[in-house]
Amino acid sequence: MLTYLISFTNYLGVLNLFKYLTFRTMGAILTALFISFLCGERVITWLKHKQKEGQPIRLDGPESHLITKKGTPTMGGVLILCALTISTLLWADLHNLYVWLTLGVTLGFGALGMRDDYLKLTKRSSKGLSGKAKLLTQAVIALAATYIFTHTLPEPLATGLAIPFVKDYILHLGILFYPLSFCVIVGASNAVNLTDGLDGLAIVPVMIACLCFCLIAYLVGNSVFSNYLQLHHVPHTGELAIFCGAFIGAGLGFLWFNAPPAKVFMGDTGSLAAGGALGTIAMITKHELVLAIIGGLFVIEAASVIIQVGYYKMTKKRIFLMAPIHHHFEKKGWAEPTIVIRFWIIASVLAIIGLSTLKLR
């Protein structure tokens, strides 16, 4: 919205700053952070008033959670989504289709997560929407977004898969690009959701991934930088750097209240939305496989659940003491802050490895 000020640069030269993505990205970060700080306590107070007993705690989970996390409100993702949306609309170019697509997927997944959280609260159970209902809704949103951006991106990028560490090559998938997009967007959404089990565990890796894709979107959207780094140039994707910046600011503000001991949990409202946003940005910027590296912590968490369930169905035995894997370490006696900080370190290392693919070709 503030990009409209560019038309007044002839009268006030300082408004030239609004032409620069870097300036607007920093503005988006600070705006989202300010909104989170301004509204955080009010949102938490309102959630406590509405929820009374807070988020239902899994009875089969770590015993300590029944004491330490009892009464903590959930659906804190609404704070993230509000700060993200307002900041994005203020600082991004509203003529950019990719901004609207990414924001639409994020809010759509957020609404789905909100419905899931609401059912858990009303039923006083850790089970909300059925798995089939979740997947079907996610599939509709993800595939609708995929249809739109594949008809906007230039060929051969539209339905092509970029391979990390390989330059000037696109694997043409054709109609198979849609199942890939489903796996990336829906898979990322559910992987972040599985990671969100301890105070601060999910939001920091999400911010790390957003920081990486902020840089990726800026580079692939700029023909000079993309040519220099031998990346596939995707026109007009630079504006997604502003969306990523807004998510970083909103995430930092949320972490202020989610740091141990958490005053609020993001719930499915925030986790499903965050993963959906990352998956959509990865698809549009043609860094689908790089997301699996940068978001490797989410992959590990999701894989631990798949392995646990699959192995148990075959042998009636468990590999991990509990899945997702962060609960395994809790069962082994690791302190919650120890698990969270070590997982943050893992996420940081994987992000560095993922970013290395931009140069190693």
How is this structure best described in words?
- The structure is a single chain.
- This protein is mainly α and 361 residues long.
- It has one domain (2-356).
- It is 64% helix and 2% strand.
- It has 14 helices and two strands; from the N terminus they run αααααββααααααααα.
- It has helices spanning 21-51, 65-68, 77-91, 97-123, 131-150, 177-195, 203-220, 223-228, 240-258, 267-284, 288-294, 296-315, 325-331, 336-356, and strands at residues 160-162, 170-172.
- It has a two-stranded antiparallel ribbon.
- A hairpin with a 7-residue loop joins strand 1 (160-162) and strand 2 (170-172).
- It is globular.
**How are the strands of the biggest sheet laid out side by side?**
1-2
Poorly predicted runs are: none
Number of helices: 14
What can be said about the biggest beta sheet?
Answer: 2 strands, antiparallel
Shape: globular
Sketch the topology as an H/E string, one letter per element: HHHHHEEHHHHHHHHH
What's the number of structural domains? 1
Instruction: Determine the mean pLDDT.
Output: 90
Q: Tell me the total number of β-strands.
A: 2
Radius of gyration (CA) equals: 20 Å
Assess the beta-strand content as a share of residues: under 5%
Helical percent range?
Answer: 55-70%
